[in-house]
Specification:
Low-confidence stretches: none
Strand content: 15-25%
Bound molecules: zinc ion
Radius of gyration: 25 Å
CATH superfamily of the largest domain: Ribonuclease Z/Hydroxyacylglutathione hydrolase-like
Structural class: alpha/beta
Shape: globular
Number of domains: 3
Number of helices: 21
Mean pLDDT: 94
CATH class of the largest domain: Alpha Beta
CATH architecture of the largest domain: 4-Layer Sandwich
Distance between the termini: 30 Å
Strand order of the largest sheet: 12-11-10-9-8-7-28
Helix content: 25-40%
Largest sheet: 7 strands, mixed
Length: 632
């Protein structure tokens, strides 16, 4: 047992008076679980939970000693009696490993009650600690599956967390001479397969581990150059769910890694969705994925979700805090406090500085910051995006012109992110009487939207309020969802409809299938609203491709002529454009001493780095894959 854990336990014991009747103190990953025979004592005069959490600077979970837990059936009945009906409880289930009763409801606020009164009452009357989660207002099969999976393996998760704690709080001898370095394993001077190795003498962490879905070779990060068994990695931190950041994580588990994955709760759910879909898309194309569904499920067990701005020890010499990056639901910038403050690193991940309908503004204040790793997707000096109003006007114009000549519109979107942003824009047109066209939303985008409705607190106030009032914009009248790819031909028989389908770069999935059916019809329109990666079909069409070979149903190859109208409407990107990146640098506090640029094509990354150096007099380098940089 580590000395630090012993000390933590001693501190807990010294704070809590005897009447708290503590029977066991356990670490659950970075959190503390206190088992008691007298939960009531924690909520009397003083709030001992808050006091202990403050002293330890850790999340503290109060759990009733197992001997006092009420029979599950009785406990469920009691909880249903205590919680007001308006809370609309969808499900209650029990995780004995955590002495927890999970209550999934449409209005979790009512399960918590004013000042936590209702949930306190549940603990006191049943012994079970309520784990209160929000039910999505729009069904998502994948979310259901994820929650079921976490529940099914709660015994194993408890064990995983205990083992993680042993590593997080291991005894090490830190020294002022300790060094720190990063190695660029993927996503440098390119977009795709983002992966950064962060190493100290005591700790080895990966930040993101993505795949390049657009590439036909070199799709995966250079993990082999680490020359170590992947089981020796201590942890993985994931900025957000997009596959170029999370897509290779199940492979780590396939290769023997069994450590914690830190990310926000929505990232956990969305990346699981995208990883399953990745396997599925490849299977439909008759290709093998680098891992299978079992590996995805295994990784899920190891996720330790963290909220924005929650400070978390992830290793004896590393402390992690995730901050809002405003890019997609749950997306984060990573702040790493290394070696008791010897070095502070911020890795922005994909980041949006500027207005979006979905998210609050990106976080730009950090307690300390020496090295910044920043994305440069639109970092080139010519990479300006029109402002949002212009973008929305252009989109509306192209849609209306197409509808007027009885054509249909295909908008390929990233199922997570652009999909929902474009839905909000179209719904806004509809609500304001500017557009009266039916919008079909195909497949995965619906699943992703469902997950959005389970995390309204991650969304901008207006959207949040609508979801809470059961008026979700994602299920507004204008939208019709299509599941399992049915009825595609029927939809195309209609005239003047908008089709929102993934993938966003026409690299597979529903959008490609629609594209093949629509390409030759000159009345139809294809509108790109997001970034098109190098080498993708989307990029080629954007560049003026007029025809491509395709195999028809009989297996014959023929030329498919692209007669449809092709438009690119910039300005909806979840990435900052050149101006916004520079504005982010200007407003970031404190100023870093050094900047490393990633996530941008070669010239854009280089150009952005040059501009940062020139304008802000900060050393800025566009690192290349396989390069290392010593931070300390
Ligand atoms: Zn992204
Ligand atoms: Zn990315």
């Amino acid at each position: 047992m580590s000395k630090i854990i012993d000390q933590l336990k001693e501190t807990v014991s010294s704070i809590l008076p005897e009447k708290c009747e503590v029977t066991k103190i356990e670490m659950e990953g970075p959190e503390v679980a206190i088992y008691t025979k007298n939960p009531k004592s924690f909520f009397e005069n003083e709030n001992f939970v808050a006091k202990t959490a403050f002293e330890l600077k850790k999340r503290v979970n109060i759990r009733t000693d197992k001997s006092l837990l009420l029979d599950q059936k009785e406990a469920e009945a009691k909880a249903r009696q205590i919680v007001p009906e308006d809370a609309d409880i969808k499900e209650i289930y029990f995780d004995p490993a955590f002495s927890e009763m999970t209550i999934e409801s449409i209005k979790p606020g009512l399960v918590i009650g004013k000042g936590g009164e209702t949930s306190k009452k549940i603990i006191l009357e049943t012994g079970w600690t309520p784990n209160i989660i929000r039910a999505p207002t729009q069904t998502s099969d994948i979310l259901k599956g994820i929650r079921h999976q976490l529940h099914k393996y709660s015994d194993e998760r408890k064990k995983i967390l205990k083992e993680a704690a042993e590593k997080i709080y291991a005894d090490i001898d830190q020294s002022p001479k300790d060094w720190c370095r990063v190695v660029a394993l993927g996503g440098f001077k390119q977009v795709g397969r983002s992966c950064i190795f962060l190493e100290t003498p005591h700790t080895k962490v990966l930040m993101d581990c993505g795949i390049n879905v657009a590439a036909h070779s070199e799709s995966f990060p250079y993990l082999n150059v680490l020359h170590l068994p992947l089981s020796e990695l201590d942890a993985v931190v994931v900025t957000h769910a997009h596959l170029d950041h999370s897509g290779f994580i199940p492979f780590l588990f396939k290769s023997g890694f069994r450590g914690p994955i830190y990310c926000t709760p929505p990232t956990r759910d969305l990346m699981t969705l995208l990883q399953f879909d990745y396997i599925d898309v490849l299977a439909k194309e008759g290709k093998d994925a680098p891992y299978n569904e079992k590996d995805v499920k295994e990784s899920l067990k190891y996720c330790i979700p963290r909220e924005y701005r929650e400070v978390t020890d992830i290793a004896p010499d590393m402390r992690l805090t995730l901050h809002n990056a405003a890019h997609i639901l749950g997306s984060a910038s990573v702040h790493m406090h290394i070696g008791e403050g010897a070095h502070n690193l911020v890795y922005t991940g994909d980041m949006k500085y500027g207005f979006t309908r979905l998210f609050n503004n990106v976080d730009m204040r950090y307690p300390r910051l020496e090295t910044l790793i920043i994305e440069s997707t639109y970092g080139g000096k010519d990479a300006f995006q029109p402002n949002r109003q212009e973008a929305e006007d252009s989109l509306l114009r192209v849609v209306k012109e197409t509808v007027e000549r009885d054509g249909n519109i295909l908008i390929p979107v990233f199922a997570v992110g652009r999909g929902q942003e474009i839905m909000l824009v179209l719904e806004n047109f509809y609500r304001n009487g500017l557009l009266d066209a039916k919008c079909y939303v195909d497949g995965m985008t619906n699943e992703a939207s469902g997950i959005h409705t389970a995390y309204p607190e991650y969304l901008r106030k207006g959207v949040q309020r609508r979801i809470l009032q059961n008026d979700s914009p994602f299920t507004a009248e204008i939208f019709e969802s299509i599941k399992n790819g049915k009825n595609r031909d029927e939809i195309l028989q209609e005239k003047g409809v908008v089709i929102i389908a993934s993938s966003g770069m026409l690299t597979g999935g529903a959008s490609v299938r629609y594209f093949y059916k629509m390409a030759e019809n000159q009345n139809d329109s294809l509108i790109f609203v997001g970034y098109q990666g190098e080498g993708t079909l989307g990029r080629k069409i954007q560049g003026g491709l007029k025809s491509l070979p395709m195999t028809d149903e009989k297996g014959k190859t023929k030329a498919l002529n692209i007669n449809m109208r092709v438009e690119t409407v910039d300005g909806f990107s979840g990435h900052s454009d050149r101006d916004q990146l520079m504005a982010y640098m200007r407003n970031l506090k404190p100023k870093p001493k050094r900047v490393l640029v990633n996530h941008g094509e070669r010239t854009r990354a280089a150009d952005f780095a040059r501009s940062i150096s020139a304008r802000y007099k900060i050393s800025a380098t566009p690192m290349d894959n396989l390069e290392a940089a010593r931070l300390k």
